[in-house]
Amino acid sequence: FDNYYTKDTVCGQSVETGNALQKGDTVTLYVSKGPDKNPDNYDQKVVVSASSGSSSGKLKLYNWENGSWKEAFSCKATVGKSGISSNYGEGNTATPKGTFKLGYLISTNNMAQSNWPFYPATQYTCIVDDTSSSLYNQIKEYYNLPAGTGYDHLGKNLTNGNCSGLLFIEHNGNGASSAGVVRGNGSAITICGMNSGLSSTYGCIDIKSDDFYTLMANLDYSKNPHIEITN
Question: CB of 31 within 8 A of CB of 6?
Answer without folding.
Answer: no
